[in-house]
Design brief:
This protein is an alpha/beta fold. Helix content is about 45%, strand content about 20%. The protein has 18 helices and 13 strands. Helix 7 crosses helix 9 and helix 11 packs across helix 15. The radius of gyration is 23 Å and the shape is globular. The two termini are about 35 Å apart.
Length: about 425
Amino acid sequence: MIKRKLFDALYAHLPKQEITMIVGPRQAGKTTLMNSLMDELNKSGQKTLLINLDLDEDRVIFSSQLKLLSKIELEIGDQGGYVFIDEMQRLDNAGLFLKGLYDRNLPYKFIVSGSGSMELKEKIHESLTGRKQIFELNTLSFEEFVNYKTGYRYEDKLNQFYELEPEKTIVLLEEYLNFGGYPRVVLADELTEKRMLIDEIYQSYIMRDIAFLLQIQKLDSYSKLIRSLAAQLGNGVNFSELSKTVGISLPTVSNYLWYGEKTYILKKLTPYFSNPRKEITKSPMYYFFDLGFRNYALGLFGQINRPAEFGFIFENMVLNMIQESLRFTGALIHYWRTKDGAEVDFVINRGAKLMPIEVKYKRLKKPAYSRSFFNFINRYNPSDAIVVNLTLDATEKAGNTQVNFIPYYRLPELLASF
C-alpha cells in the first residue's frame, strides 16, 4: 500500500454534508484511495457501499435515482452511511443526477470519483455549485515516492534523510524522473513490467478517454500532438508551427490542447509581463502532470541518464511541487521571457507580490544564477527569489532581494511562507 497525502484531507471532509469529489488522471490511485477511506470507516463501525460505474452490473443501478436509492437501502439500510461511487464520469448528466440526490437531504454521504474529464470538471461543477468539494489526486509526488521506496522509515524526517544520504537521494530522484509516479508503475519491480504498464495507461487514455470525449477516429493526430509537446518541454509553443507539425488545423490544435489540460495530462503556463513591447505576452508553455507519461510519449521511458536530459524533466517536477504547495492560495504561476532572449523559469504572482524561481539540475557549490534572473530581479525588485538546485542551501542579497539557494526538497517549506 502506498500512502497518499490527500487521505487526511479527504477523511476530514467525510463528516461534512457536501459531496466529496475526487478527480485526477486515469490510474492515479483514486479507487485505491476510496477503498482506504472505506476501510477506515468500516473499522469505526460505519456502513459503506462502493458502486463502480465501470462495471455493467453497477451501471444499470443508475437508470434512475429511485433504483439507486433502493440499492443503497438494501445494502446499508435507511439510517445513513457512506456511498462511494467510482468512475462517475461514465454517467450521462452526472451533475444533475447527483444534484437530485443531494437536494433530497438523504442520510447518506456521497463520495464520488472520476478520471479527469469534462463531466467532472465542467458539467458537474455547474450543477453542484455549493454542494460539493473537489479534491484533486495526482500521480505520486516525489515525497510520496521516496516515502514508499524507503519503507516509511523517514516519513517525518525526510529532509534529514536527503541531507545525510545524498547519493541515495540522487538515485531515487533519477528513478522518479525516469518513470514518474503512476502507482502501478512504481509498484512494479521489473523494467519490462513498468514499460507494459505505462503503455497500457497511455493507450487506455488515448483509446478510451480521448476517443470518447472527442469522438474522433484519427487518434494518431492527438498522439502526435502529445509527442510534439513532450519534445518542447520548457519551451514556448507556437500554435501555427504545431499545426503544421501535427497536420491539423489551428482550431483543432486549440481544441486538443484544451482536452489535454482537462484530462490531467497537460499543464499550461502563460507568460508574465508588464511591458508588452519588450516582454513575451503569448506563446504558452506546456508541462506534464506525470513525468513517466511524458517520457513514454517521447520514447524515453526509463532511458534518461545524462544531466542534460534530466534538466527539463527536473524543471517539470519543480513546477508540480510549486503547484501542489500553492494549491488553494490563489497564487498564479507564469514563466518570463523577453523579446531579446532573457528568461526566468517560473514567476509566482500572488496579489502584489512576485517571486521568480530559477531551476538548475546541478550540484551547486556556491551561489550562482543567470544574467536573465538578475535582469528580472533588477526590473521588478521582488523581496525574495529562489534558485532551486540539487544540493546548495544558502542565501545572498541582490540589491534589496534575498536570493534563496535551496535544494529542491526544501521548496515546499519555503513556499509555505509566501
